[in-house]
Design a protein that fits this description.
The complex is a heterodimer of chains A (318) and B (295). Chain A has 318 residues and is an all-alpha fold. Chain A folds into two domains: 34 residues, no CATH class; 196 residues, MetI-like (MetI-like fold). Chain A is flat. Chain B is mostly helical and 295 residues long. In chain B, helix 5 crosses helix 12. The chains are: A mainly alpha (318), B mainly alpha (295). The interface between A and B is large, with 124 and 119 residues.
């Protein structure tokens, strides 16, 4: 973070708005108001909702009679689906992010080398991130169709599906119809979706490793693996943390993948906190319970925000 | 070895030609595998959108071939028999408002944080960025209440109102990066020449920041196009929907999926946005790396 140039000391104050104490807050005011009104206030409202009895039909909190204490949390927690959703959210996020970190490192390494067709590869690899997520997941939904999945076709041709075969005797796998397969599909789509972002962040980190460090390593005769583990990865750690925190947030709070791919099914086995909050709060009309469910995202988000702050501080102090 | 460009040297290890050949092979193979993983759903979209019903829904057909000649009728259905055009129009209209609001709010805010607020400003800048991490899935339920209270439920203007909540934090951060690189001297010179501070900003900082403003416009647009959760929660009638939510209601009628038109809609939106993103990628990354990467 660079230090802003100091304002000149001896300039005459000719206009009222030349005064920095007036102008600074004034220019910042609209942004702060917008964020307080439509992020800060709703965030507080989410907490209030969670302790109230509001519904989609009647979303107003009028007075103390609307507050019901911990009733929503009790109801939410006593529901087996919620506990499934909580577990799924954590498992899907952790599993997909382990793969994302490993793959992103490999892919960033590939894209930092020179080779023919690199621009095309970069474009293709980025596609999942640049596509509106709902439409990208729709593509997967069709690829994993219960009857017309091209994967099933290939497996049939290879003799893996169909009568008397390894995965037979059915002619289809029903990817999204069986719990374990559907869960795997959700994880794969999350990997597909967040890998590009993690990769480009790491790539930016790789390109910032000073050339003289690489040169020195080469002169000293350090091989590829040695350079990887003793130079690249340690130097990349802070930026890897940034990449991980971002993909953690996006995966942990995502609603679209589970909603479009499986609608939380089969039998709620791919339900996550955000989909369950949507089904209860918006579709079921019980805003209060929906808010209570979504609030379970908050502790993890706060932890991630603290991590971000620490990283930002450290890079400032360098 | 010493004549190779440094990146190449870094990527391929060892001295022997055989070892280097192996390294290149691994490099290309990895690149191809990841490209395929990323691209296959899109390839499948493009493949599907030109297929006839007869071809698509015959399980005996090889799905990787056009058993019937490709057809444009699915595109025709999408364009003329669904509200696709309305969705596109709504999306652009909302995006236009979001872009305008974002630029008007973000440019002064970024200037203020970089130039006027000092140390205090960089902390506030980080705080604003953290707002970007507050996810729609946490806010959509209370915001549904707020939107209803304002009488905007089931209206596209609800989205025009709410979308700046994620474009402002992200774009403020992007804009701060641009503002930092504007030399203070030209602004000072303008003030010595007799302009007020605001006059000096308008005549020197704004023109130099045009690339930054353009980036803000592009990302306000793409983030609007990407948004799904708020749109899903706020709006129920087709006439008010954006494209990423609209195609689901119009092209999935009960149990009937209009797969070719669905895929056409997805591909028609995805590919142009991808091209746009690719062009602005480096600036986009700058916004994400939180200043942790310098130079």
């Amino acid at each position: 973070m660079s230090i802003p140039a100091p304002a000149p000391q001896h300039r005459r104050q000719r206009y009222f708005f030349d005064n920095e104490r007036v102008l600074g807050p004034l220019l910042l005011f609209p942004a702060v108001v917008y964020i307080i009104a439509l992020v800060g206030f709703p965030l507080i409202l989410a907490v209030l909702y969670a302790f109230s009895d509001v519904t989609v039909g009647d979303p107003r909190i009028r007075g103390t009679e609307n507050f019901v204490g911990f009733e929503n949390f009790r109801d939410v927690f006593n529901d087996g689906v919620f506990r499934k959703a909580l577990r799924n959210t954590i498992v899907f996020t952790l599993v997909s992010q382990v793969f994302v970190i490993v793959f992103a490192n490999v892919l960033a390494l590939v894209l930092s080398a020179d080779f023919h067709g690199k621009r095309l590869v970069r474009f293709l690899v980025l596609l999942p991130w640049t596509t509106p997520i709902a439409l990208g997941v729709l593509g997967w939904f069709w690829m994993l169709d219960s009857v017309y999945s091209p994967i099933d076709y290939i497996m049939r041709r290879m003799g893996l599906l169909g009568p008397d075969s390894m995965f037979g005797p059915g002619r289809n796998m029903y990817w999204l119809g069986k719990s374990d397969l559907a869960q795997a599909a959700v994880v794969v789509v999350h990997i597909w979706r967040t890998l590009p972002l993690a990769t480009v962040i790491l790539l930016a980190g790789l390109s910032s490793i000073p050339q003289d460090v690489k040169d020195a390593a080469n002169v000293d005769g350090a091989g590829f693996w040695r350079q990887l583990f003793y130079i690249r990865l340690p130097l990349l750690l802070p930026i890897m943390a940034v990449a991980t925190l971002f993909s953690l947030v996006f995966t942990f709070t995502d609603l679209t993948v589970s909603l479009v791919l499986t609608r939380g099914g089969p039998v709620n086995d791919t339900q996550v906190l955000s989909t369950w909050a949507y089904f209860k709060g918006i579709q079921g009309g019980n805003l209060a319970q929906g808010a209570a469910i979504a609030l379970f995202l908050l502790p993890v988000l706060i932890a991630i925000a603290i991590g971000m702050l620490r990283l930002a501080r450290r890079s400032e102090n360098d | 070895m010493a004549t190779l460009p440094p990146t190449q040297r870094f990527a391929s290890e060892g001295s022997g030609r055989g070892k280097q050949f192996l390294a290149r092979t691994v490099l290309y193979a990895t690149a191809v595998i990841f490209s395929l993983f990323a691209f296959i759903p899109f390839a499948w979209m493009i493949m599907t959108m030109f297929k006839t019903n007869n071809d698509l829904y015959n399980p005996r057909n090889n799905p990787f071939l056009y058993n019937d000649p490709p057809t444009l009728s699915n595109l025709d259905l999408l364009w003329n028999d669904t509200s696709f055009r309305t969705f596109i129009f709504n999306t652009f209209l909302i995006a236009l408002v979001v872009m305008a609001v974002t630029v008007i709010i973000v440019v002064p805010a970024a200037y203020s944080l970089v130039r006027l607020a000092g140390r205090w400003g960089s902390n506030l800048g980080i705080l604003i960025f953290l707002v970007y991490l507050v996810p729609p899935t946490l806010l959509f339920i209370p915001l549904t209440g707020v939107v209803a209270d304002l009488g905007l439920q089931n209206s596209k203007w609800s989205m025009a109102l709410v979308y700046p909540t994620f474009t402002i934090p992200f774009c403020t951060w992007l804009m701060m990066g641009f503002m930092r690189s504007v030399p203070w001297e030209i602004e000072e010179q303008a003030m010595i020449d007799g302009y007020s501070r605001i006059g000096a900003i308008w005549r020197t900082v704004i023109p130099v920041s045009i690339p930054g403003i353009l980036t803000v416009v592009i990302f306000s647009f793409t983030l609007t196009l990407h948004e799904f959760v708020y749109s899903l929660a706020f709006v129920q009638s087709s006439g008010e929907k954006t494209v990423s939510v609209g195609v689901f209601t119009e092209l999935i009628r009960g149990d009937v999926f209009f797969w070719q038109s669905l895929m056409a809609a997805a591909a028609l939106v995805a590919i142009p946005v991808a091209l746009l993103y690719n062009y602005f990628l480096d600036r986009f990354i700058a916004g994400f790396t939180l200043g942790a990467v310098k130079g």
